[in-house]
Amino acid sequence: ECQRAKFAACASDRKTVVLELDEARETLCVWYWPVNDDGEHVVPSDLASHQKFHQFRGPRCLCGFIDDDENSSYHCEAVIVVLTWGPHVGEYVACCASSKCGYIVFIEQIHQSSGLPIKNYLRCNPDEARPHEIVFLDRNGTYFNKNCVWQSDTIGFVQ
């Protein structure tokens, strides 16, 4: 639990790189920001649509780190939402889709930084399976898909 809290704080504090849980679920690693065909950073509001046609996933939250299932290899993908109140109102963040691990990264600020690690992800084949819609679970046990508008009394998001 202490290590997860340290990871969450470390990921949140970064200003020039997005950190995610590594595939082995042991430490943090760099998540490479996608670029379009012209080499420009995909803006946060376009990440979901870019993902539909390219072979990439959003950053992994820390749920895989606290998951006790040794056989679990699923990608705990963070949801991309917009803050609706607080000092960063209107900014995009990546946060835990189940609201349980404390992962939150201020991607609005990071995506404009120079030196941001980037990658031009390959396009999906027309017959390739598309990523599933991310479902966000608030602390009251209510499910929302990433396309609906809602507010949470814990952080306050709008997609």
Q: Any descriptors?
A:
159 residues, alpha+beta, 4 helices, 10 strands, disordered C terminus
Number of strands: 10
What is the CA-based Rg, rounded? Answer: 15 Å
Q: Largest sheet, order of strands side by side?
A: 6-5-4-10
Largest sheet composition? 4 strands, antiparallel
List SSEs in N-to-C order: HEEEHHEEEHEEEE
Low-confidence segments = 137-159
Model description:
By secondary structure, the chain is α+β, with helices and mostly antiparallel strands. About 15% of the residues lie in helices and about 20% in strands. The chain contains four helices and ten strands, in the order H-E-E-E-H-H-E-E-E-H-E-E-E-E. It has helices at about 1-15, 45-55, 65, 105-110; strands at about 20, 30, 35, 80-85, 90-95, 105, 120, 135, 145, 155-159. A hairpin with a 5-residue loop joins strand 8 (about 135) and strand 9 (about 145). The longest helix is centred in the N-terminal third of the chain and has 12 residues, at about 1-15. The protein starts with a helix and ends with a strand.
